[in-house]
Amino acid sequence: MAEWNADGVERRLPTDEARELLALTRDIARREIAPGAAEEEAAGRFPRELFALLSRSGLLGLPYDPVYGGGGQPYEVYLQVLEELAAARLTVGLGVSVHTLSCHALARYGTDEQRAAHLPAMLGGGLLGAYCLSEPSAGSDAAALRTRAVREGADGDWVIDGAKAWITHGGIADFCTVMARTGGPGARGITAFLVPGDAPGLSAAPPERKMGMKGSPTAQLHFDGVRVPDARRLGAEGQGFTIALDALDSGRLGIAACAVGLGQAALDEAVAYARERRQFGRPIADFQGLRFLLADMATRVEAGRALCLEAARLRDEGRPFGRCAAMAKLFCTDAAMQVTTDAVQVLGGYGYTADFPVERYLREAKMLQIVEGTNQIQRMVIARHLVGPESR
Ligand SMILES: Cc1cc2nc3c(=O)[nH]c(=O)nc-3n(C[C@H](O)[C@H](O)[C@H](O)COP(=O)(O)OP(=O)(O)OC[C@H]3O[C@@H](n4cnc5c(N)ncnc54)[C@H](O)[C@@H]3O)c2cc1C
């Protein structure tokens, strides 16, 4: 059933429960998340209490199995919730997306015992996760990662040494899903582990000084003899890179949904301003030059939303969705970059100041084109689906 919200965004939600979830999300977004966003972003303050609220409200484990404390929602619904959160404050939307990504390896590849032991606290116990793949010298070429895990001692614990880079929630996460090398070079020598955030030997560098998203800490993590039992190995030895990429297929949909939310927020701001601001004796919304710009912005946001939800529905039906997810990440984040840039233009000089949120949106959009595989890497993924792997 179709439903239009106050902003004119069409929502097709499959159940009454999903409609209630969206209403709850909008309420929390408007009352708790949006207020203070500008100030807290400027101050670089991570809003941990908002994540506690989302956890209490059942919004931190939406696409996972209710048996383990998840919300049991299809991705189609989870992504629309995420879009609302990101529209209110991207730091929060991204945080929920990264947390959801961090739970994927355990939820999908863990044993029943592992799931029962850890998932309920991760999905609904107020914990926050980090996903640790990138390294200082292994970004796009993540299969070249060097962090090493070696089995030691009579009990066969794993000891992890190395450094991870650019880790969202680095230094504040309660648990980390870590990809480390346990075998030879390349993708097949990598294994996934679930590491407690307070494990001895695990430390974080000071957060990176970023151009935006200052309320979302991004930091290097150092593993100095971090010991984890084999019971915290996720999946088989050597399966870690497959697990990491599988998680990223779904994670990219989260980034795409965040981009749609950010684009919608920028569009709403531009439309409201264009109606109010007068020049040449008329609202600037009267001028065709701006009307066409707004129309193009709205079309980009809506097209991105449709692509994102198409990929989600393929995933929900159990059909291959990796190609569509890469397209959604590419299209939605490029669209967010364009739409936020255009929103600054609509606001003129005021758009270039911190008195309005659009300059922050523009800085935030740039990050979305880089994380979870740059948009060059998304094009490589899509091209491989079209014409096969590159020949050397
Ligand atoms: C704010 C933020 C948060 C992040 N959070 C996390 C996180 O939580 N966990 C995590 O593991 N990582 C995280 N990352 C890391 C992110 O995934 C990497 O930055 C990204 O994968 C790119 O790696 P890189 O920065 O090393 O760039 P590089 O790989 O060095 O790329 C540099 C440039 O070269 C291009 N390039 C590289 N190879 C190719 C190629 N074959 N063809 C064409 N172009 C190419 C890239 O597209 C890019 O433009 C985060 C990054 C940022 C900025």
Quick summary of this structure?
By secondary structure, the protein is α+β, with helices and mostly antiparallel strands. 51% of the residues lie in helices and 16% in strands. Helix 5 runs antiparallel to helix 6, helix 7 (240-276) packs antiparallel against helix 8 and helix 8 (288-316) runs antiparallel to helix 9 (322-346).
Q: Can you walk me through this structure?
A:
The protein is of the alpha+beta class and 392 residues long. The protein has three domains: 2-124, Acyl-CoA dehydrogenase/oxidase, N-terminal domain (Butyryl-Coa Dehydrogenase, subunit A, domain 1), CATH 1.10.540.10; 129-241, Butyryl-CoA Dehydrogenase, subunit A, domain 2 (Beta Barrel), CATH 2.40.110.10; 242-387, Up-down Bundle (Butyryl-CoA Dehydrogenase, subunit A, domain 3), CATH 1.20.140. The chain is 51% helix and 16% strand. The protein has helices at residues 16-33, 37-43, 48-56, 75-88, 90-109, 112-124, 240-276, 288-316, 322-346, 348-351, 358-368, 375-387, and strands at residues 2-4, 10-12, 129-132, 148-152, 157-168, 175-181, 190-196, 202-204, 218-228, 233-234, 278-279, 282-283. A four-stranded mixed β-sheet has the order 3-6-7-10. The radius of gyration is 21 Å and the shape is globular. The mean pLDDT is 96. The site of flavin-adenine dinucleotide (FAD) has 21 residues, from strand 3, strand 5 and helix 12. Flavin-adenine dinucleotide binds next to strand 3, strand 5 and helix 12.
